[in-house]
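Service request form, structural biology core

Requester: graduate student, group of Dr. S.
Request type: structure prediction, single chain
Budget code: on file
Notes: please return the result as structure tokens.

Sequence provided:
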Amino acid sequence: MIRVKIVPEDSRKVAKVIIINEDDHVLMLKRSDYVDKFAGQWDLPGGHIQVGEDFEVGMKREVKEETDLSVGECNYVGKTENLDFYWCEYPDKPIKLSHEHTQFRFFPKQDLDPQGKFEKMALKALEMKND
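Core staff response, request fulfilled:
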């Protein structure tokens, strides 16, 4: 018998989630060396929304797949190209990384580069959270 696995098609839409802990530090994930894009770089949890998938469902699915975290309400931060950024509070649960990442770290505000695409949005999210 031949088995065929049907994999949902990714859309061009990408959700990135800025997860902020109680100390106002931002969760970032280091990409595995074997991934095609941005190997070894620090990234935010998230990824492609599948064709026909509800955006919020897809965003939370990506966070769960990459960190094993179930996030609650997320707040819109902004958009850059095809990337939509949201922030939410860290649910204070253990993080279990997928094969796409090798490590995680909570970065304090002073360690975030305001010129970095992801870090610039993380700094904006911190401002929004503390307003």
